[in-house]
Amino acid sequence: TNRQEMNDVGYKSARQISLSAFAPSSPYFNPDAQQPAYDPAKAKALLEEYGKPVNIVLECISTPEADLLLQVVKENWEAVGVTVTLKTQEQGAYVARMFSKKGDYQAACFRTGQFIEPDQWRSTVGTDESSNLTFYSNAEVDALLAEGASTADFETRKAAYFAAAKIVALDGGGLPPKRALCVHIQRVNRM
């Protein structure tokens, strides 16, 4: 998917494109662990090599933001030869369905936070973890995540998470297409 187009159409270019589980400002950001860039020619070639029709139902909640972004994804995928059917569901039912972990969907959208601490990320890519909504599973990644979680030594943790992130990126594990760039303002009542 063309992440830059998603950013341009959905957010007027106000977000940062994400190709990794960690923001570039994170000490756990591994510049060698990024998902491949948008390449429609390569996608077409891979589909031709596959040789069978690809039909995908892409699901999300129905909001103006999601509707815009899903149209971009649909257009990108259809431009390379994938047939896409969009399906929406009310947010409460959708979230409950995703977290039920039934896996009764082919492709779905979901928000994820920016990962600062790798232990947060582990819950989204570790086999059988509670927030692993993509059902990603890789024994080597699980071992690296366990290694990183088992120590307080920063360099050991960083090495384990760098290696895990590289594998997940190459596997195409569910990563967010963009990151919000925002400021949270809070009024503090003073007595």
Mean pLDDT: 83
Strand order of the largest sheet: 3-2-4
Please give the count of helices: 7
> Radius of gyration over alpha carbons?
18 Å
Query: How far apart lie the N and C ends?
Result: 51 Å
The residue fraction in helices comes out at: 40-55%
- H/E topology pattern: HEHEHEHEHHHE
Please describe the biggest sheet, giving its number of strands, its sense, and whether it closes into a barrel.
Answer: 3 strands, parallel
Structural class: alpha/beta
Low-confidence stretches: 176-191
- Bulk shape: globular
Oligomeric description of these chains: single chain
* Total beta strands: 5
Question: Beta fraction of the residues?
Answer: 5-15%
Can you describe what's shown?
This protein starts with a helix and ends in a 12-residue tail after the last strand. It is of the alpha/beta class and 191 residues long. Helix content is 43%, strand content 12%. The protein has a three-stranded parallel sheet. A two-stranded antiparallel ribbon has the order 1-5.
